[in-house]
Design brief:
The protein is an alpha/beta fold and 324 residues long. Helix content is 28%, strand content 24%. Strands 1, 2, 3, 6, 7, 14 and 15 form a 7-stranded mixed β-sheet that branches.
Length: 324
């Protein structure tokens, strides 16, 4: 912990009084200098890319937001605006992207500076402590369902019942999906069903793909656990024309038999985060459908304890730092 001066925002930037900041697996990787940020993150760095708070001051030329507005700072801090990805609207794939809490200081601090263009409005119905995790984990699963071609009534299998996976169950169920929860922790079955899952599969003792096929096959599989082995094992559980969407990074290769791809037009794809439009849709959907992430709360001075708890799997839901 260190004290820093509260500085004025530059033209086009704002200063945010942080109310809450979520703790993500990405923060753990930055903290450890681990994959996939080994050669990407810059140090020293204030972590945190799930930031929610109130605009405290605005720099010259800022038309939105205004002082007092409720805003969030997501993963995408800035992009070049002119490369091929940016011109397509895929700003998160910009080769010169700046990332909150990775290459720019994030939200593990009481006051934060950010470009006004990076911010997202937070609906009044969403508490600050819930908004941060929704802008990262919520956005990831919401956009993953879109990338997987989800339609209401589809069967969705969610692999992993941690901070990311439980939001996958909540969003898929609220969007009209039939949900199967897959976990190596049998004690999470009751909670998964309370979140909206109709089927629970114990991945330690059961053949996950066979159980999914007995269920009729999954139209969409969201793999939130960063395990290539788990992805390889669950892929055969897809229905025809189904999509397996990889959300958790792993340094290991995924093994899929080509026949499974060809026979039934099954797809394996990846999805990281989403656009600013996707963030707004994620938050608005959560506000309209009363989606509330399960949280484990920490104070700012206990940030390292939150990182350790995340690293060792001792969390329930998403970790969040509270500043009030």
């Amino acid at each position: 912990m260190e004290d820093r001066p509260v500085t004025e925002p530059a033209p086009g930037w704002v200063r945010i009084r942080v109310h809450a900041c979520g703790v993500c697996h990405g923060d753990v990787a930055v903290w450890q200098g681990a994959f996939p940020y080994t050669n990407f993150a810059t140090y020293p760095r204030v972590p945190g890319h799930e930031v929610s708070g109130v605009v405290d001051e605005v720099g010259a030329g800022v038309e939105w937001p205004a002082k007092g507005d409720r805003v969030g700072v997501p993963w995408l801090f800035s992009s070049c605006g002119h490369c091929r990805s940016c011109c397509r609207g895929d700003f998160v794939y910009c080769k010169d992207t700046e990332v909150t809490g990775v290459t720019q200081d994030g939200g593990f601090q009481e006051y934060m500076l950010a470009p006004a263009s990076a911010l997202s409005p937070i609906p009044d119905a969403i508490p600050f402590e819930e908004a941060g995790p929704l802008m990262c984990a919520g956005l990831t699963v919401f956009n993953g369902l879109k990338e997987g071609g989800f339609h209401a009534g589809d069967k969705v299998a969610v692999v992993g019942m941690g901070g990311l996976g439980h939001l996958g169950v909540l969003y898929a169920a609220a969007m009209g999906g039939r949900v199967a929860a897959i976990s190596t922790h049998p004690e999470k079955e009751d909670e998964a069903k309370n979140w909206g899952a109709e089927l629970f599969i114990n991945a330690t003792f059961e053949d996950v793909a066979a159980r999914l096929q007995d269920w009729g096959g999954a139209d969409v599989i969201l793999t939130t656990a960063p395990s290539a082995k788990a992805i390889s094992q669950v892929f055969p559980g897809l229905a025809q024309r189904g999509s397996c969407v990889v959300l958790g990074p792993s340094p290991d290769p995924i093994e899929v038999r080509p026949g499974l791809l060809l026979n039934g037009n099954r797809k394996l794809t990846g999805s990281t985060t989403g656009s600013r439009e996707d963030i707004r849709r994620t938050l608005e959907f959560a506000a309209a459908n009363s989606i509330h992430p399960t949280l484990t709360r920490f104070k700012l001075e206990d940030a390292q304890a939150a990182l350790v708890a995340h690293q060792t799997g001792r969390l329930r839901g998403r970790a969040v730092l509270l500043f009030d």
